[in-house]
# Entry
Amino acid sequence: MRFADKNIIVTGAASGIGRATAILMANEGAHVSIGDVNEAGLKETANMMTGDPQVIPYDATDHDSCKNLVAKATDGRPLDVICNIAGLLDWGPVDHFDEARFARVLAINLTSVYTLCRAALPHLVETKGTIINTSSTAGVAGIAYSSAYSASKHGVIGLTKSLAIEYASRGVRVNAICPGHVDTPMGNQTPPEGEIDWALVMRNVNKLEGGSCAPEDIANAFAYLASTDARKVSGTTLTVDGAMQAG
Ligand SMILES: NC(=O)c1ccc[n+]([C@@H]2O[C@H](COP(=O)([O-])OP(=O)(O)OC[C@H]3O[C@@H](n4cnc5c(N)ncnc54)[C@H](O)[C@@H]3O)[C@@H](O)[C@H]2O)c1
# Structure
């Protein structure tokens, strides 16, 4: 029960890693507010959770919607942790990938994370709480056909490290997790249109026996960084990728 009486926001909770993280933190005693654009998926997740989760639909492309999520989750309760997990994978050869698609990936994967952090930080200063963002192995290395996604996830690491320094003296920790390939709807998305050189894509697969990570493998990393075991861990990235990035 690492999170007894803690108030935690988990975005992207309608599916995959966000769902697994919300379930785990609720099982360990947290009051969890779950946010996502997919309302039906959020309700399914709530039914899988212990306790009394607060279901808060929001759209990451809308700044006011992001701020409203934090306002609702903090109404009458101090905030201890925000796990920014919602994200979008849109990829394909550059000649098929226009600026509107690039901008949408950046808006959901990076700008909304900034807005959510900005809204949460005054609350987290009060509790000496913590932020955990979601980057990717695509945030520490380039990935063919994924320039928008990779740029957004590199951006998440820059945001994470900068906030960690800015808020360290006020006791707020800020970290990011870099999953490798995870068995979720995003991880198993059908390939995009256009000519793909699969040899380039397959460089980025997990090497550890058993292949892809499960959503629960990543949820465990969120729980560690949210816990007091990580009280001196800030401004860092935790890679969970079965040796994908090791070389
Ligand atoms: N699956 C992987 O292989 C992998 C690898 C590295 C990083 N990640 C990252 O992990 C995070 C979770 O991904 P996942 O694999 O669980 O994928 P997923 O598709 O199962 O879940 C992503 C969630 O984000 C939500 N979302 C998308 N657009 C949104 C919007 N505009 N507003 C609010 N919510 C929105 C979706 O509805 C969905 O529930 C993402 O940030 C992703 O980039 C995933």
